[in-house]
What does this fold into?
Amino acid sequence: MNRCMCEHRIEVDNLDNGEIINHTILLIKGHIRQPRFPLPNNTTKKCVEEQLVLRLRQQSVHADSAGELQQHTPISRNGQFKLLCDLGQHVSLAEEVQLQLDFSFCNTSHQLEILYKAADSSNKKYRLQPLYITCSKQSVPEELVHENCEKINLNLRLVQCIYAEQLRTAGFGRRTFTINGDCQVFESNLSCEEVWQQNEKDLWQNFAQELLTSSNWGEDSKLKFVAFISCTRYDGAAVAASGDFSYANIRIHLKGHAALGGGGLALFGAAYLFAWPQTCNAIQTCFGSTKEVDLTELPDDSNYRRTYGGVYATTLGAVVHEIGHTFDLGHTQDGVMGNGFDYVNRVFTLDNLTEHLPDRIIQHVAPKVIAQVATRPRFTQLKRTTNSFLDKYHEQKTSDSFYFTRNCAVILAHHKWFRIHNGSADEERAGDAEITYDAVNNCVISAGDNHPLCLIEVRCMDNSLVKYWYELQSGKDIDEIYTFHLPKEAHEENHYLFVLTKTGLTKRFNEY
It folds into this structure.
């Protein structure tokens, strides 16, 4: 029986009927649409319904198991809704499960069917392993280790979802990386005192070296790591005594901390896990938390929002950013790999307020260069720019303000850690390719029949900022490209070339 004379239409924006999902946290975005014509009898009564209901039913493809999950979510002022479903709590990660999604709002309903399919053994050739690093002779309460590992597990799965969503939005399908398993404790040979005395670059070098030489992890070249240092220490009393609550001063009094990614390791301090959720149901609440950070007790890395929600957004965005470096992404002016990783909260929340945050750009150089970003890999040197609040308002009103630029999306879509591998064919052909740079003719050459060029970037040597990039298109009616002549403008001092083939091979040329 209808509760009112309303007419609605439920639209799901980011999920198609029959779509295959390989990650366990699923973001569902959509709208409740109202008709543009008058209702019967010129009814103007406002709908009293405020929540959308999702019933998720599952039926295993290989078994007779079935189950149901029900969730409610509020509708924003413009009819938008966002739902987070943790499939990992309701399906076996090793099976295929047909999922039926029944949406209902007021007197209307909508149904979709999707397939959850765990990453198969061929996809697991390239994996990402979460680690919780403890120090030699360090005593860490077992409960704290368990809690932090659970937070890391959950939020890395959320990062996995973020990558899938962003690549789908960019037109490359729901591609993402594969997680190797639950967070594991890795005991370093360094003591806490030694860790506290080192800067983040030295910490990255030492921990990377220990992982490479470890018996558990060192022999697997197809494994990358995202690791959190357990003994990160914050001297809040010293910050309070100084009266200087700037991020720069907070960072000075934060020991054993890092936010640095590249190669096979993305490394972070554990000091900000206080703002991270431990369950999927708490994710959106944590993003929306306005609880103020007590800087005498806890550090703040929120780009000056000074709230738990701001800390969660910035530090999770930093994880997305630094993991991007392990997947060979350079820096960009905008987006996740530039000035936009603070806004990851906007991907999952509704009715966001416009935030005029300091841009993470410290200077501009030569006229044709887009921007020069901070030389510190975490963009920690902040300075307000001349962007107006109105510009920021329009930007955030029309988008989530969190995205990978096109060149980054192209790299991820073709990267070995994101490609859908069919057996070992790609690896068998890998030896046939030889990527070279011809200085005389100023061109890049891929000397392998199966490895056409895909993308070439010119990056600054100091900070890997992308100055120029060239996507090499090919397709049904266009020949594959194996030789690319660089434009004269692309030849820059103190820059290097990053080259990507369609099969995921990469090459860097420091001199060209």
Summary: Residues 123-407 form a domain with the Collagenase (Catalytic Domain) fold (CATH 3.40.390). The mean pLDDT is 84.
